[in-house]
């Protein structure tokens, strides 16, 4: 784990690049939070793991045309922006920066306030 002091972000190793097939998603849990990490043609992305509509994890969904489809009610979100794209979802997903470095897919999560 490393800290980006300029952006107050912790970079956490989520997986190796080969752990996610292209056009797929995996679950990553860290420090009480759950994330969805995606791999699409132009790279890796991450968002909150839970659908904003109901309690379904997006890692159980389907990646289709740069969107993640929720497994429960088939609402879709744009993977890169988190934008809600189709009913019944209407609340956007929070997204997180991702970078590949030293053979690891790193997820940028907010640093916890030490105060």
Automatic annotation (TrEMBL):
Keyword Iron: yes
Pfam families associated with the record: Rieske (PF00355)
Domain Rieske: 12-107
Cofactor dependency: [2Fe-2S] cluster
Protein name, UniProt field: Rieske 2Fe-2S domain-containing protein
Family: Belongs to the bacterial ring-hydroxylating dioxygenase ferredoxin component family.
SUPFAM superfamilies linked to this entry: ISP domain (SSF50022)
Keyword Electron transport: no
UniProtKB keywords: 2Fe-2S, Iron, Iron-sulfur, Metal-binding
């Amino acid at each position: 784990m490393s800290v980006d002091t300029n952006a107050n972000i912790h970079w956490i190793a989520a997986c190796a690049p080969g752990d996610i097939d292209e056009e797929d998603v995996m679950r990553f849990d860290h420090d009480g939070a759950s994330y969805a990490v995606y791999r699409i043609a132009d790279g890796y992305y991450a968002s909150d793991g839970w659908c904003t509509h109901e309690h379904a994890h997006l890692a159980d969904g389907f990646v289709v045309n740069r969107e993640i489809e929720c497994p429960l009610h088939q609402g879709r979100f744009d993977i890169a922006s988190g934008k809600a794209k189709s009913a019944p979802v209407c609340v956007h997903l929070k997204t997180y920066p991702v970078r590949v470095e030293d053979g690891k897919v790193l997820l940028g999560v907010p640093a916890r306030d030490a105060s």
